[in-house]
Every structure is written in C-alpha cells, then in structure tokens.
Write a structure and sequence with these properties.
Elements (H helix, E strand, L loop, with lengths): L8 E3 L2 H8 L7 E5 L2 E7 L3 H7 L4 E5 L5 H12 L3 E5 L5 H12 L6 E5 L2 H6 L4 H23 L7 H14 L4 E2 L4 E4 L20 E6 L1 E2 L8 E6 L7 H17 L7 H14 L11 E3 L6 E5 L12 E4 L2 E4 L3 E4 L2 E5 L4 E3 L16
Parallel strand pairs: 1-5, 3-4, 5-6
Antiparallel strand pairs: 1-2, 2-3, 7-10, 8-9, 9-11, 12-13, 14-17, 15-16, 17-18
Length: 356
C-alpha cells in the first residue's frame, strides 16, 4: 500500500476479510491501513465479532443503514486522501454506491482500483495454514475410502455425492470444499459435471472430484477415476497419458519455477500423445480458504512458484461422447522442491474397484 501511495484499502473479498481478521461471517468489509483497521459489519454479528476478533475496531450498522453509508462514515472519520478498493470483488453497482456516498462526505477521498494485494499475500501459506490443508486432505481421503467401500452399481451419481459429503463430515470436516463431482462414463467428458441420475454401474468407469473443508475454513481438492466393471477400449491408454502428464507437472514444481513452465511440462505430454485439443483448462490452481486461489498454473499465467504455496496439479483429457480422465493432487512448494500432500493411490491397477 505504501508503494502505491495509498493510506487505506477497502477489503470487500470475504475470504480476504477472514484471512486478515479471523472473522468468519459474511456481508462485512474491512478498512485497513498502517494506522487504521475497522471491520464494518452489521448487528447479526456483534457477538461473533467479539468472540473471533476482539480488540478490533468495529463499525456496526443496522437494517436502516446501508453498507455504503457505513463505509463513507468510517472513511470520513479517518480523513483519507485516497482509498484503494478490490476491483476483483467489487461490482460496478457497489462501486457506484460507495463512490457516491464518499463523494458526499467530508474530505472526499479518491477511490483507486488496486490489484489482488491480499490475495497475493494469501498465496503463500504459513505453518498453521499448511496444517489446516493437511487436515482437509486427511478428511477428504478418509471420506473417499469409506465411500468406495460401500459403492454400489445401482446408486446414482447424486446419491454417491451425498454419501461422500456425509462421510467427510463423519471424519471431522465442516462440509465439502465444493459440490463433489461424480461423473459416470461419457459424463466424465464434462470437467465440471453435476451429479445426476446416471447410475454408477451404467459404464465401466466413474470420475470423482472432491475435497473437504475444515472447521477452520481451509480446503482440499482431489480427483480420481475408478474402474468399476469392464474396462472400455483405450481407457488404459488415456489414463496412462494423463498420469504421465501429472507426474511430469509435479516433477517441475520447485521454488523459482515459472507458472507457465509447470503447465508446459504436463501439457507437452498430452500434446505429444495427440490429445492436446482435449485438454483445454489450466493445469492447476492454489487452494486455501477458497477452492480456487492464486497462483494459477496455465499457458498464460505470469509469476513464479514460492515456498509455502499449495497448488493442485490436475491434467485431463476429455473426449465428448466417450468420457474423460483427470487425476489431481495437492502439492506444497517447499524450500528445496515440493511435497505431494495427497496419498490416494493413482496407478491404473489401483483404480480398479469391486462394487456390489
């Protein structure tokens, strides 16, 4: 903020507010500067704020007082010449309301759009955050193992997804990190397939993309393909290509490696096998309080990996009408390389399961 010449920043991204303050409620902003820190919230959270982040200055509004008026009040009291705001999480309508309210207050600070300052700080996890992500991985893996043990051919994708959510909670998760993807056969060609009425036994394989969210708010993200009956022709070949690509991507992870180069290490394997046009998304992303965080691994990503970053590595091949294969692990960038945090087996022979 000093480099940008900003005396204060209005933080509107809820995950950023949580990361900076410890407050886990919603609909709240934070006005922060070198000599300023005010959480702007409402009467629903008065007690919760005192429990989660006591000692922080707070501006509490009620239903008759809109958020933009509360922001203007705090900004005017601070006598700010300029105020940065998070453009990535502030809608045009919100910006107009805040701008209008501030321009009518004493001092009329200039509103300045800034980049993802807090998000960039969040990309490097400290030891406590890494411990939370390890816990989220553990909860996800135990839930998945328990789900596989009771997997039945006549269950629908949606039923299995609900069972997986329940089992992760049984092992301590607050809930799923996101809505699990359970995609049978041809539906696995949809990278973000929504579980539906297709039954597990209707095809020879099923793709699972799932993760757990800890009570501390941190998340994990994994993907595996299970082979449940007769193996479709070419599945073993495609699975082998994806697994090789993933291993090459993980191998490239180390401090100082460019985000592009890690993506390229994996993508090259899929392109050389002739499936390049069937892998359209980036190789991975950061995880933490959000399921998609900085940094991003893609052909156009800028930046380098640094120790403390936790990223997914998830190459995939998606063939419309046939199905898809994606394999995903969570990887910590260490001082001298990397550590794979996830441990669900992923060899082709490990993917074969017996179902009732």
């Amino acid at each position: 903020m000093r480099k940008l010449g900003l005396p204060a920043l209005l933080v509107t991204d809820e995950s950023n507010v949580t990361w900076l303050t410890g407050f886990t409620g919603d609909s709240s902003y934070l006005l922060v500067g070198p000599k300023l820190g005010v959480l702007i919230s409402d009467t629903r959270y008065t007690v919760q704020i005192s429990e989660e982040c006591s000692g922080l200055d707070v501006e509490i509004r009620d239903a008759r007082r809109p958020m933009h008026d509360a922001v203007a009040t705090v900004a005017a009291a601070a006598r700010l010449g300029a105020l940065g705001f998070e453009a990535h999480s502030t809608s045009m309508a919100t910006w107009e309301r805040i701008s209008g309210a501030i321009s009518g207050s004493d001092g009329s600070p200039e509103l300045v759009s800034v980049g993802m300052l807090v998000n960039e700080l969040r990309s490097k996890k400290d030891s406590d955050e890494i411990a939370e992500i390890r816990l989220a991985v553990h909860q996800a893996e135990r839930g998945f193992a328990a789900m596989v043990s009771v997997l039945e051919a006549d269950k629908t994708e949606l039923e299995v997804a609900h069972e997986l959510e329940h089992l992760m909670r049984r092992f301590g998760a607050e809930g799923p990190a996101f809505e699990p993807i359970v995609a049978v056969g041809p539906r696995a060609a949809l990278p973000h397939a929504r579980p539906g009425s297709t039954r597990i036994g209707e095809s020879g394989f099923v793709l699972f993309d799932w993760g757990a969210k800890t009570t501390g708010g941190y998340r994990s993200d994994l993907t595996r393909v299970l082979l449940t009956s007769k193996i479709p022709p070419k599945l073993e070949t495609i699975y082998g290509v994806v697994l090789k690509a993933q291993r090459q991507g993980i191998k490239a992870i180390r401090p100082g490696a460019t985000l592009k180069s890690v993506d390229r290490a994996a993508r090259r394997v899929i392109e050389n096998a002739g499936y390049g046009k069937f892998f359209g998304h980036g190789l991975g992303h950061g995880i933490g309080l959000d399921i998609h965080e900085e940094p991003r691994l893609s052909p156009v990503a800028e930046g380098v990996l640094e120790p403390g970053m936790v990223i997914t590595v998830e190459p995939g091949i998606y063939l419309p009408g046939w199905g898809g294969v994606r394999i995903e692990d969570d990887v910590l960038v260490t001082r001298d390389g990397h550590e794979v945090l996830t441990s669900v087996p992923k060899r082709f022979e490990d993917a074969v399961v017996q179902i009732a």
